[in-house]
Design brief:
8-stranded mixed sheet; 9 helices; 376 residues; Alpha-Beta Plaits; alpha+beta; homodimer
């Protein structure tokens, strides 16, 4: 039996939200820790202070963990040579916004509270108690997630230190309202360029208008409708949208370049290669097609034993992840992964992120129990 | 008989290019004067030095002229109360470029030599000898022509001092290679705006993509072909070109605005109102249509007695003016006007403007004779 593919035993079938919540004082600890993380600004490209805090705390309080710092990524791992290794993964950075943390009535408000410093707090607290679990655990904290897959610290780790991010199952602690959000969509942004030849607009026959050349393709690209696709019984809504247009030299000159930017979000039944071919077909006649950036899709893999056990034993409701997360990055190297974390995804990237102590507690309890499950 | 509509007598039917050229020393004077004008930089918005030079020279050497300076416009007029008033019109400004004047082998090279300081030199020399002509003469030197009709000094004069630019016939000394270039095309630049509603590209159903809304109109606008139209036996090539496109907020956001810029050049058989209606029809569905700028078309009016006399008595070959000039501005107030000046229009706005002494001389001689024609 391959490592990590075993059945897991059931220690306790009660739901996460049930009687096994934390004691009130522990909930308060978790909320305070999350508030402390929110109080350290960590907008993308400025994660150093938070990475330093996380590293110091893991070194001080993580038990049985070896800690590596690579740039502003921090990886803490147990290394007991066990058959199964579970990865918990969270990004340190936030989108830009108004800084500050506020705790009131068991609720934490502030930039990044939901996306995803609540999840980071859960990870840091779990790191204090995984020493003697029946599985090895890896905690991955990384920078640059909000900048896109190419600039994400996790992508860098997979490229430079794949040993640190290897494992059998990964939980990405994006806010999911403590649902299991399965898989993730893929995203690709394409740049389609049509060239022409400049000419004075009084003598258009001396030139070639790049816009006129681009219009048939633009027509096809702009008329793609949303496609809903079923993957493992889950419905993912793909989309193809023209998100940018640029042409023009001067108002008396035929443009010699027309740039169309296309955003393609796709269900995990597709690959980047497939959607690139699709856009290439739609953009027929273009002089250049470039993938500006992309993030891979992640398959749900609900039938994988560890995914199934995670869902079943935590009693989680399941829905498809509509956005793109690093579940796709783990999928790319064959590691089954799920999104599971405290807070509502709808609040992410808004000016009002609010996280409750009970949501934090449910995430913590669920993960704590899962990491404690014995393999059969 | 209305003023200026009379038949003009023929003093001499030989062609301008014929035996009536200037003496070599006078040709050299004209070329030196043109070189002096080229040596004074006068890129649009920086015409003050050249306006000052022109004003001073007119005051010093113009005979029987009253001189008005309005901003960087200079108008010099005879005021003998004669039945006919001829306007000679030239702009002081040049497009940006490398400054400097060079005279070699009876040729002047330099920015603005052709467009249109050669014409200005002809005007300045004529201003010294119109005192006792059988018609009144107005010399109009103005700024800002290269910035478009709205910012042209001539437009300002027509608005603020119409008395200074009134007359029966106008010659615009744009470079025409000493052809009579009849009328001029009209130009209008339109901005067509389609609005939408922003939404994250993962949830396009929550928004409206402005590009998708704009595409049918863009389709129609970009597929307009060049139309050749005959006006008074002359062929004008109209055009409708998409010269600018702009949309895009971020690559993960549905654009809420799509801006299309359209350049419409039209034959003098059309008006701004007509082409605006045409663009409005093509842009059906747009949320906003704005005329960003426009320059009126000018009809050839080859059958007008003064235009006919000018052509016939100078023995000029006639062709339609493909560009937009201030002939349109004069036409707008009912003053028949023609383009006639030294130098090749193809050199205008290039980095290599060359003007020959003989071209200058032909323009000078032709205009000098025309201004000396007696009304029958």
């Amino acid at each position: 039996m391959p490592a990590g593919a075993g059945r897991v035993s059931v220690q306790n079938r009660s739901t996460v939200a049930g009687e096994h919540s934390l004691a009130p004082e522990d909930e308060a600890d978790l909320l305070r820790l999350a508030a402390g993380l929110v109080a350290i600004p960590s907008v993308s490209r400025s994660e150093e202070a938070l990475a330093g805090f996380v590293e110091a705390r893991l070194r001080a309080r993580g038990r049985g963990l070896s800690v590596d710092r690579i740039g502003n990524c921090v990886v803490a791992r147990t290394g007991r040579g066990l058959a199964r290794r579970v990865i918990l993964s969270g990004h340190l950075d936030t989108v830009p916004g108004v800084q500050g943390a506020r705790v009131e009535d068991d609720e934490l408000t502030g930039l990044g509270a939901v996306d995803m410093k609540g999840g980071l707090a859960v990870m840091l607290l779990l790191a204090e108690q995984v020493e003697s679990n029946p599985c090895d655990t890896t905690f991955v904290f990384y920078d640059g997630e909000e900048l896109g897959s190419e600039r994400s610290g996790l992508t860098r780790l997979f490229a430079q230190r794949p040993d640190l991010v290897a494992g059998d199952f990964a939980v990405v602690l994006e806010p999911t309202g403590n649902w299991l959000e399965a898989g993730c969509q893929g995203t690709a942004v394409f740049e389609v360029v049509f060239n022409g030849k400049r000419a004075h607009s009084a003598r258009p026959w001396l030139g070639v208008n790049a816009v006129a050349r681009a219009v048939p393709a633009l027509n096809r690209l702009a008329s793609c409708s949303t496609v809903t696709e079923e993957v493992e019984g889950l419905l993912y809504r793909g989309s193809l949208q023209v998100v940018g247009l640029q042409a023009g030299v001067a108002t008396n000159v035929l443009p010699d370049e027309c740039i169309i930017q296309v955003s393609r979000r796709y269900a995990p039944s597709h690959t980047l290669e497939e959607v690139t071919d699709e856009v290439r077909r739609l953009a027929d006649g273009a002089d250049r097609l470039t993938v500006l950036r992309s993030s891979p899709a992640g398959r749900p893999r609900l039938d994988h034993p560890l995914v199934a056990a995670f869902q079943r034993d935590l009693g989680l409701r399941v829905r498809p992840k509509l956005g793109t997360t690093d579940v796709g990055r783990f999928s790319l190297v064959g590691i089954p992964a799920v999104n599971f974390g405290p807070g509502s995804a709808e609040m992410a990237h808004t000016s009002h992120e609010v996280l409750s102590a009970s949501a934090l507690s449910r995430s913590f309890q669920g993960l704590s129990r899962f990491l404690g499950l014995k393999e059969e």
